[in-house]
Specification:
The protein is α+β, with helices and mostly antiparallel strands. The chain folds into three domains: 80 residues, Defensin A-like; 64 residues, Single Sheet (N-terminal domain of TfIIb); 126 residues, Serine Threonine Protein Phosphatase 5, Tetratricopeptide repeat (Alpha Horseshoe), CATH 1.25.40.180. The chain has 16 helices and seven strands. The protein has a four-stranded antiparallel β-sheet, covered by helices on one side. A three-stranded antiparallel β-sheet has the order 5-6-7. The radius of gyration is 21 Å and the shape is globular. It starts with 6 loop residues before the first strand and ends with a helix. About 5% of the residues have low confidence. This is W2 domain-containing protein. GO terms for molecular function: eukaryotic initiation factor eIF2 binding; GDP-dissociation inhibitor activity; GTP binding; translation initiation factor activity. It comes from Physocladia obscura.
């Protein structure tokens, strides 16, 4: 693998780092260059930009090659090396239930990666290519599992939701909410994994889980206590697509307009800052935010409240529009 290169461009608030040889580095690791770029962004707390047409991979801020190489070592450990034999000849595979595993072509191990890392959500939304050998082995294993399950009932979470009547769904969601409340109260160090597993066991749709989590993870001190960053990895597991982002925005509308525990008084005027914090953690994308801001909906709160929240969010939305115009001018 070639050593990572760094080229710093711009100055002031517009300073950014271009990684000119990231394609060569990623190819040596048998990983997508976008995975490496996004990993840099998550680890360095910086926004990233990928232009596939020009093959420009950009990380905001000034980062020298030595710093990038150090961060890249972490990517290799977490998403390349086999946990069993430490061989780099692995493929990433997305299993049922959105579990990501590293399939080792050297020793045959197929072990899960740590789903708490934010990059996992990006990988699930942008599945990796795998080698022919791994594809055949994976298909054979899946066929074997399907044969073993013949004659048993195995409906997917979405199918289970459709089959349950409204009362059953409410009961399931209540059970999940009670579980989350209890595990957060007990400050379980493995809370994130337990919450993911519980949602999967109950067959709860990701968007439903997001709505519930938005009401339970945060308090009126969510900004001061840096709660968004603390819970970002958990939310990334459920916010996998545009639908998940819309659910997060809807959950935020409901949360900040809640009168309990001084939440509305503390957060209503700070919606723009809250949205910026979610955006910085790459839980929200520009297009989704701008589309949300254009039209008030009464899906989560009444129309008047929805309109007021969008008005409070205008400084953030204006910043996004301005940033887009600046990027276009730079291009």
């Amino acid at each position: 693998m070639p050593k990572i290169q760094s080229k710093i461009e711009g100055k002031g608030n517009g300073i950014k780092t271009v990684v000119p040889n990231i394609t060569d580095v990623a190819q040596a690791l048998s990983r997508s260059p976008a995975y490496v770029t996004k990993y840099f962004g998550f680890e360095l707390g910086a926004q990233t930009k990928i232009d596939e047409k020009t093959n420009r991979h950009i990380v905001n801020g000034a980062h020298d090659a030595q710093k990038l190489q150090s961060v890249l070592d972490g990517f290799i450990t977490k998403f390349v090396l086999c946990q069993s034999c430490k061989n780099p000849e692995t493929d990433l595979i997305i299993q049922k239930g959105d579990i990501i595993t590293k399939n080792c072509n050297a020793c045959g191990a197929n072990l899960p990666v740590d789903l708490r890392h934010k990059l996992c959500a990006y990988i699930i939304k942008n599945p990796p290519a795998i080698s022919n050998a791994t594809a055949k082995a994976h298909a054979a294993a899946s066929n074997s599992t399907d044969r073993m399950n013949l004659g048993t009932s195995s409906s997917a979470p979405e199918e289970a939701d459709e089959e349950n009547d409204a009362a059953d769904q409410d009961q399931i969601l209540d059970e999940f909410a009670n579980f989350v409340t209890e595990i957060l109260t007990n400050a379980d160090p493995e809370a994130d994994i337990a919450i993911m597993d519980k949602a999967s066991d109950l067959g709860i749709k990701d968007s439903k889980a997001v709505i519930i989590l938005m009401q339970l993870l945060f308090t009126a001190e969510m900004l001061e206590a840096n709660q968004i960053k603390h819970h970002a990895a958990l939310l990334h597991y459920f916010v996998k697509n545009e639908k998940g982002q819309k659910a997060l925005l809807g959950g935020l509308e409901t949360f900040v307009s809640t009168d309990d525990n001084g939440i509305k008084e503390a957060l209503y005027e700070r919606v723009a800052l809250i949205l910026k914090a979610f955006y910085d953690e790459e839980l929200l994308e520009e297009d989704v935010c701008l589309a949300w801001g254009e039209k008030a909906s009464k899906k989560y709160v009444d129309k008047k409240t929805a309109k007021e929240i969008r008005e409070k969010a205008e400084p953030f939305l204006h910043w996004l529009r301005t940033a887009e115009e600046t990027d276009d001018e730079d291009d």
